[in-house]
Amino acid sequence: MPINSVNVLRELAQQQSRRPFLARGSKVNRCPVCLMAQVHCLCEHDVSRACQAAVCCLFYQGEVFKPSNTGRLIADVVPDNHAFLWHRTEHAPALLALLNNPCYQPIVVFPHQYAEPERAIHEVHDLPELSHKRPLFIFLDGTWREAKKMFRSPYLADLPVLGIQPEQASSYLLREAAHLHQLCTAEVAIEVLRGCGEWQAANALSEHFSRFKRAYLAAKANIRRPLPPLTSDDATPLSDTK
């Protein structure tokens, strides 16, 4: 699995941290790249897919270190990926430059109930700018309380907001959601990629997410043997005919 922007960001955050971040399961011998237990390491799988969309993950403090975080899976799949730590009063110059890059049309992925009506879009194709710009989907990664803080950042205030209406409850049971309808970051990204016609990337992320869940739960159950290959019962490919 190639090194991506999230891996680089985590390494930089570790260098700048005054103390190590101790997440749940910190005593497990983990792969430093995928953060899974070594026996269930995911790095042998090549999940990167060609994709016309770009992604930017904005992480709340500490989120980038958590093995249960799913936003980092997006960067494994989408080649044009960017990652930044969110700070309330400090704004990374590289992030601001990315948002102002004329090659991209930034789109914040967040529920419409928190956005002004004029900012809300229901489909990516609602934006005429995408006829000559690449969509840059911005994912706010943290708890819902933290994500709402990030959403109020001034540099996001004028950007269009794409809302996702899930058809079913989240399948991610490793972390608690504030509401039953709320999806984890990877699940949201799958829906976004489907919505803009990036089916190969959406299917790859869906499979990667399924493999990630199995590996994480196996470590929690103290299963120390390698897992069998993923089957069709573990991950169902998405179809552009639906």
Overview of this structure, please?
- This protein has 242 residues and is of the alpha/beta class.
- The chain has helices at residues 5-16, 71-77, 93-99, 144-151, 185-195, 199-220, and strands spanning 54-59, 81-85, 104-109, 120-121, 134-141, 161-162.
- It has a six-stranded parallel sheet with strand order 2-1-5-3-6-4, sandwiched between helices.
- The chain is globular and about 50 Å long.
- Mean pLDDT is 85; it is low at 173-181 and 236-242.
Count of extended strands: 6
Largest sheet, spatial ordering of strands: 2-1-5-3-6-4
Q: What fraction of residues sit in β-strands?
A: 5-15%
Largest sheet: 6 strands, parallel
Helices and strands in order, then pairings?
Elements: H1 5-16, E1 54-59, H2 71-77, E2 81-85, H3 93-99, E3 104-109, E4 120-121, E5 134-141, H4 144-151, E6 161-162, H5 185-195, H6 199-220
Parallel strand pairs: 1-2, 1-5, 3-5, 3-6, 4-6
Helix pairs in contact: 2-6, 5-6
Short description:
By secondary structure, this protein is α/β, with parallel strands linked by helices.
Question: Which labels suit this protein?
Answer:
six-stranded parallel β-sheet, 6 strands, alpha/beta, 242 residues
